[in-house]
Amino acid sequence: MNASPETQATAIDGSAEAIAALVAHGARALTSTAKGGARRTPSLPDALPLLVGVTHDLRSPLASMLVLLERVRGGHAGPVTPQQEKLLGLIYSAALGVASLTSDALDMARGSAPDLYSGPPREFSLRAVWQSVRALVHPIAEERQLVLRWSGPASDRRIGHAGAVHRVLLNLVTNALKVTAHGSVTVSARAAGEAEVRFSVTDTGPGLPAAVRIQLHRGSAQSGAPHVHSTGLGIAMCQHTLGVLGSRLELADQPGHPGTTIEFTLVLPPSTGALP
Q: How far is residue 135's CA from residue 158's CA, in Å, rounded to a whole number?
């Protein structure tokens, strides 16, 4: 039975992007201040802790879903037909998107991502970070028949916060895969001076939506949860993460060339020691 006009008019957008944007919006509303500097008393005092708690608890089952889907796709539960493989790839892509958005929304509700920067900078491999990102997004690229490419600097071992690099690259590559119907997504990291690395993510898609481009031009987010557009939550989280590290996303599109290139630079001194 078709929904009535009244029901259709009040339909709720239940997409992952809309839910994550609502989480961030609610966090800002609950922590906003009234005129004169007095903190506004929310109608539900325990709403923010509950919101953060529920969002946090969603991450573990989503991670388990991704692992189980990978095992099924790999034939651990029996042979998989090509049609089943395609459908599993679509399910995996959707679950990965929700998992990423959940992590981003949780960090934005808290106003920061302390887990990414806790402790001193440590030695890590840029190639290992890329391989971890690639393992997560490979089903998306495979389902969409897109090529994933990587090129790294001669000095692969660096000192820094690997979790932050992983988070930003995962968001950018996932977004690039979403908007690219044909072609490839290329990630490159090149030395920029003695202690810096310049990252770029290039896709062959139609380009970013105008609203997301505006969001990019805003630069680093201000204190607290950054501004969120439902189609640009990943971009907002990247800007927030990079802002803590003294960097920002930059558009580096070439006029007359299709696709989008987004770049950022991080201070990641080369390491001369051996990786553990």
A: 21
